[in-house]
Amino acid sequence: MEFSKEQLKKLSDLFGAKVEKQLTIEEVQKFVRLDTIDDCKQYLTVMLDFYFDVIKSPEGRKATSPFEDERNIWLQTMFSKGCQFKSLLDGVGYSKGASHLKPIIDFSILFTIARCVYESLIAFEILFVLPKTEDKQTIVYNLFMAQGLSERLKDLDEDMRSHNPTRVQEEQNDIDECRKAIEGTKLYKTLDQQTRATIDYALGNGKRFRYIFKDDNTMEFIQYEKAYTLLNVKENLFNSLYSFFSLHGHPSYLSLIQFRDAFKDEYRADMDMAKHATQCVLAFMSIYIVDYMKLVPEIKTMYDKLEEPRRFAIGMYEDAMRGEKKFK
């Protein structure tokens, strides 16, 4: 995820007008590209501090329905992933007797967490942001619930089922309630046969929840590889990024040889990989918190009260990705 000189210049002009001293391209570049691991941790701390303030605020806990309560919990899961990621930037060493291993950063784990943060962002968008009517939200969210419950039931072996019949029945009842909630919407009754069949298949097989409604009220399943198109980011920013995460997070040949070559004294590739992974996580967390603020205006009020550098750090990536000029 690289920024061109032109993009950096635009960022400098965009934010320079709101501070006492206009930011230079070099200063903006430092924010965006992160020169050191300490920069990574400092920037993550600014982002996580705001997440934490939101979580413990009355506004961040306010919910008028179970749906909103679970939306707020989703924010907490993003915060947890960000904290775990930051802790890994310290690296891990090892000692046994007189032998010592200097701390290293296993960037394959960082990219695995980055992929998880990306997946959480996509799911948040599909469940809480993209549905524009209550009926669409009801259908999509109940598919999400039914899928999770069905997967858990399928994982129970016969011994577990025989010893926990009450739990099995309760969860099956919950799946049935998801179906009733979906079929009880006015929208469901107007859907074409193919779209209803898609919903029935998802409910009956515990398969897939990542569906979005198209303009004609048909439904489309979203692959994570293409899901970045839902984020309304500028073209070519996230192309192939999910594949990149998977390639490094899975035990591929490329991940093997990169690990082999990463810890040489003359060039520590683990540091550069860690900075890139941090950049990705910050971008996802910036987009997430901005979209959360759009749903909960009271949080935007908290954001507006922050001093300029902190607002800049939290909203800059989202603004650079989308060019909305709303949150900065």
Structural class: mainly alpha
For the sheet with most strands, the description reads:
2 strands, antiparallel
- Quantity of strands, as a count: 6
- Per DSSP, the total helix count is 16
Any chance you could write out the topology, listing elements then pairs?
Elements: H1 5-16, H2 25-33, H3 37-56, H4 58-61, H5 66-88, E1 92-96, E2 99-104, H6 107-129, H7 134-155, H8 158-163, H9 165-183, H10 186-190, H11 193-205, E3 211-213, E4 219-221, H12 241-249, H13 253-261, E5 263-264, E6 267-268, H14 269-295, H15 297-304, H16 308-322
Antiparallel strand pairs: 1-2, 3-4, 5-6
Give structural notes.
- This protein is mainly α and 328 residues long.
- The chain is built from 16 helices and six strands.
- The strands form three sheets. It has a two-stranded antiparallel ribbon with strand order 1-2. Strands 3-4 form a two-stranded antiparallel ribbon. Strands 5-6 form a two-stranded antiparallel ribbon.
- Helix 1 (5-16) crosses helix 2 (25-33) and helix 7 runs parallel beside helix 11.
- The chain is globular and about 65 Å long.
- The two termini are 20 Å apart.
- Residues 14-21 have low confidence and may be disordered.
Give a short overview.
With about 325 residues, this protein is mainly alpha-helical. It contains 16 helices and six strands.
Structural features:
two-stranded antiparallel sheet; 328 residues; mainly alpha; single chain; 68% helix
